[in-house]
């Protein structure tokens, strides 16, 4: 049934007369706009009505009228969704030492709410009317023109969600991608019918791995494991080729390519693809061009000179695109780490046959990486050109992807240093605004030009950080600090997060990137995820503006606990018991590559660690255990933890009583030793500070429990009970969040809610926090604008008219109480507006005028 529906939709959105007519007529500025519209009637009726118009559809007004009658605007099939696991202040953010960076992180954390979407049930029930593919769980979109989920964006979004402790949202996003595999055989490029022709870099298995490390949810791993294997088989069946020995013709190993068979333009970029083939004469030439273009879109790098001719008159020209002749180094690195993780997962599941099978695949993938991609002369991996049988020995940031995936021998400590030397020779480490994606900066393609892409920067940083080499870990620390500082400055200047950034030295401030088929997009899902993940792993302190602009960074947490992004041992989930600091007894010994011994480690996992534990948890690790090797998860034993404390020096003891002396007081003070009363004062101050710190932690712990209690109430007993509980806590931040939740759903508002919220609005409006004030102003607007007339009419009703109608009497009491609360706000207007910025003051005054006109005329 689903196949039949997709087939019908393809005639509307992928290849058909309506698509051709609309795109040729340039009805909409962006080719993607039309293919994101939803149908008002079924595809068969729509096509029938279109054919009945005959040649008249060539007239623009006739065509526009037809589209308006048969299609709804884009976005109507998606609704904003408030993530139920979102809390105002995740406990994990306590580890961010710099105040400004912590505020920034909280802002990015709030953006998750703005980017969270859910597919309407109508799409599930009537898939034949929508180009949007149904998925059952809420998800985070990238932002901007990208209204649906995107495959490889989701990996970095998930990393940010995990640091935000939004485990349920992260799990739901993984379930959505697994749902795609279950229903379509693979994960498409994005959540649209027209994306079912191609995928994107295979990162679903690493996503599950990251989620497991954060939660220890083995049951979920085993649940999705068959679908992870199904996706791996898709790449093995449809995207792999056999490499034969050039002399003996013996099969040596498999290699993977992005290879999409396409005989039409990409629907979402129809006009651009048609323009590209206008000078081609035969269908075969056009089909080859479109296949190479779609294959490049599958890489995620759409577009880059990486896929174009590297020499000759057509060098770096889009019309020379030849993606299917390139064996990408990053794709083969991703497949390599997929095999390694799947082997480890199957070891957990107790499937030795599968373990051995994926161990062989992993070893073959390492062989492919070494034989086909590694260039010993340059000390780097390159894409391989199968047409010419040579390396594409040009710098692209993807050359370092195997370092991130750890697709080289475990004992090899030399290769990472060679990779660093290569990047230094190419001069890319000298850029002060990030790591350029390529050096083809004269290109107009967005994956060249002067752009740095956050996921690529993140991969290189994490690749170095997780080597265990102290020098390279320091390099990673400096790169992370630089990227965080520059991104923060850009945010302060532009109040936006971009999908890509400009690395040119010609511009003074940090600006958005450029180039490509569309304007730079803001939001932005994977950028936010990268920043939050780096804040999780790097300790940065910003320099005050009066000092030099370079950031100051302390010894990063990474120096003692390297943690590979997709190569950490399965025995150390994020929420497991924290590892002690290096100077403390009981710390597992470090190996020569920065590994932490897991012998005897406690593998019990609890998602509900307290604030202290979460704030001090430091993650350690290396790659996942090799399939076939002893799995620490299966052999570990509980570690007996011992608490060690260092007593403060006692400044007054029985043997250190101040003795009388004949010296004058001044002489006695001068002759005191440093260990006398002065030390006693210092010790007492330290003890008081410790007690104060414990009190702060206790208060934070209590606040966190209150937040979680309100969230649970909201999920189980509804908004009214959640509001009552928030009011009872007396926490303005918590109350503001509940009000925001109510504001997001206007249908929740009632006279009763108006009365209860109005009684506390003055407190919310008097806060300095702009988010709280905005929530209060929006609630005030709803009360005075939407309920003002009703409040007035109900309040002035003659009691004799009510009679014995108890409900009406109670409603009148609530209205009068609400009006009294509003009058109190009106009386305090001068005080409240002084605390607001001009824009909010203007809005507040306008609302008070509405109150005067609608209600205060009583």
UniProtKB/TrEMBL annotation:
Amino acid composition bias (Basic and acidic residues), ranges on this chain: 601-613
Region described as Disordered: spans on this chain: 544-680
EC top class named in words: hydrolase
UniProt GO MF annotations: alpha,alpha-trehalase activity; microtubule binding
Keyword Signal attributed: no
Domain Katanin p80 subunit C-terminal: 691-835
Pfam families with a match to the protein in the record: Katanin_con80 (PF13925), Trehalase (PF01204)
Subcellular localization(s) per the UniProt record: Cytoplasm, Cytoskeleton
InterPro entries per record: 6-hairpin_glycosidase_sf (IPR008928), 6hp_glycosidase-like_sf (IPR012341), Glyco_hydro_37 (IPR001661), Glyco_hydro_37_CS (IPR018232), Katanin_C-terminal (IPR028021)
Cellular component aspect of the GO annotation: cytoskeleton
Basic residues compositional bias, start-end: 651-661
Residue spans of biased composition, Low complexity class: 544-553, 633-648
Signal peptide positions on this chain: none
EC number: 3.2.1.28
Catalysed conversion reaction: alpha,alpha-trehalose + H2O = alpha-D-glucose + beta-D-glucose
Record-stated family: Belongs to the glycosyl hydrolase 37 family.
Protein name as it appears in the record: Trehalase
């Amino acid at each position: 049934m689903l196949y039949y529906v997709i087939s019908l939709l393809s005639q509307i959105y992928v290849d058909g007369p309506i698509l051709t007519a609309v795109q040729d007529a340039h009805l909409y500025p962006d080719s993607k706009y039309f293919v994101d519209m939803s149908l008002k009637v079924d595809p068969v009726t729509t096509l029938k009505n279109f054919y009945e118009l005959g040649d008249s559809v060539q007239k623009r007004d006739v065509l526009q009228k037809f589209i308006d009658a048969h299609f709804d605007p884009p976005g109507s099939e998606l609704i904003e969704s408030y993530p139920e696991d979102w809390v105002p202040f995740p406990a994990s953010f306590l580890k961010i030492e710099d105040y400004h960076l912590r505020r920034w992180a909280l802002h990015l954390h709030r953006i998750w709410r703005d980017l969270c979407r859910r597919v309407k049930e109508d799409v599930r029930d009537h898939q034949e009317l929508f180009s949007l593919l149904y998925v059952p769980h809420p998800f985070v979109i990238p932002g901007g023109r990208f209204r649906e989920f995107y495959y490889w964006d989701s990996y970095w979004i998930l990393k940010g969600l995990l640091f935000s402790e939004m485990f349920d949202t992260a799990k739901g996003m993984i379930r959505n991608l697994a749902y795609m595999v279950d229903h379509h055989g693979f994960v498409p490029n994005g959540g649209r019918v027209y994306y079912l022709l191609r995928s994107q870099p295979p990162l679903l298995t690493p996503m599950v791995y990251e989620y497991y490390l954060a939660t220890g949810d083995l049951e979920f791993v085993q649940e999705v494991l068959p679908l992870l294997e199904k996706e791996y088989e898709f790449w093995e069946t449809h995207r792999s080729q056999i490499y034969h020995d050039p002399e003996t013709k013996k099969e040596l190993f498999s290699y993977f390519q992005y290879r999409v068979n396409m005989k039409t333009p990409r629907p979402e970029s129809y006009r651009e693809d048609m323009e590209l083939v206008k000078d081609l004469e035969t269908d075969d030439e056009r089909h080859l061009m479109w296949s190479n273009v779609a294959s490049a879109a599958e890489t995620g790098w759409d577009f880059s000179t990486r896929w174009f001719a590297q020499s000759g008159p057509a060098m770096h020209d889009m019309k020379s695109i030849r993606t299917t002749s390139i064996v990408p180094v990053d794709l083969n690195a991703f497949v390599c780490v997929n095999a390694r993780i799947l082997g480890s997962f199957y070891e957990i599941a107790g499937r030795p046959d599968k373990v051995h099978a994926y161990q062989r695949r992993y070893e073959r993938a390492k062989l492919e990486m070494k034989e086909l991609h590694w260039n010993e002369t340059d000390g780097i991996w390159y894409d391989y050109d199968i047409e010419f049988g040579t390396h594409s020995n040009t710098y692209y940031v993807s050359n370092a992807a195997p370092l991130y995936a750890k697709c080289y021998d475990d004992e090899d400590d030399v290769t990472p240093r060679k990779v660093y030397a290569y990047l230094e020779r190419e001069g890319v480490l000298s850029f002060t605004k990030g790591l350029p994606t390529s050096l083809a900066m004269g290109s107009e393609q967005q994956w060249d030009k002067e752009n740095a892409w956050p996921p690529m920067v993140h991969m290189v940083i994490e690749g170095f950080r997780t080597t265990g080499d102290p020098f390279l870990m320091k390099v990673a620390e400096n790169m992370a600090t630089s990227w965080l500082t520059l991104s923060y400055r850009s945010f302060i200047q532009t109040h936006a997060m971009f999908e890509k950034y400009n690395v040119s030295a010609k511009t003074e401030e940090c600006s958005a990137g450029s180039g490509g088929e569309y304007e730079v997009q803001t939001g932005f899902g994977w950028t936010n995820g990268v920043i939050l993940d780096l804040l999780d792993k790097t300790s940065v302190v910003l320099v005050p503006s009066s000092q030099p602009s370079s950031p100051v960074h302390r010894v990063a947490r990474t120096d003692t606990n390297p943690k590979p992004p997709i190569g950490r041992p399965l025995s150390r989930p994020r929420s497991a018991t924290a590892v002690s600091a290096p100077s403390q007894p009981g710390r597992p010994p470090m190996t020569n590559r920065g590994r932490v011994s897991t012998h005897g480690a406690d593998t019990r996992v609890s998602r509900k660690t307290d604030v202290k534990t979460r704030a001090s948890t430091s993650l350690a690790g290396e790659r996942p255990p090799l399939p076939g090797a002893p799995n620490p998860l299966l052999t570990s034993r509980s570690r007996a933890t011992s608490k060690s404390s260092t007593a403060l020096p006692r400044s007054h003891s029985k043997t250190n009583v101040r003795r009388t002396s004949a010296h004058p007081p001044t002489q006695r003070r001068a002759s005191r030793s440093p260990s006398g009363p002065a030390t006693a004062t210092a010790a007492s101050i330290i003890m008081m500070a410790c007690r104060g710190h414990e009190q702060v932690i206790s208060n934070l712990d209590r606040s966190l429990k209150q937040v979680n209690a309100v969230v649970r109430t909201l999920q189980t007993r509804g908004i009214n009970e959640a509001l009552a509980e928030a009011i009872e806590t007396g926490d303005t931040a918590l109350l503001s969040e509940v009000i925001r939740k109510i504001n997001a759903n206007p249908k929740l508002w009632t006279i009763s809610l108006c009365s209860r919220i109005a009684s506390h609005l003055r407190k919310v409006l008097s806060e300095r926090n702009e988010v709280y004030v905005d929530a209060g102003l929006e609630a005030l607007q709803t009360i005075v604008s939407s309920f003002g007339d009703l409040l007035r009419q109900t309040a002035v009703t003659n009691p004799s008219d009510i009679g014995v109608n108890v409900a009406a009497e109670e409603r009148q009491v609530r209205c009068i109480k609400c009006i009294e609360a509003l009058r109190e706000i009106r009386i305090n207007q001068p005080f409240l507006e002084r605390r607001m910025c001009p824009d909010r003051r203007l809005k507040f005054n306008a609302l008070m005028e509405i109150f005067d006109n609608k209600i205060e005329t009583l």
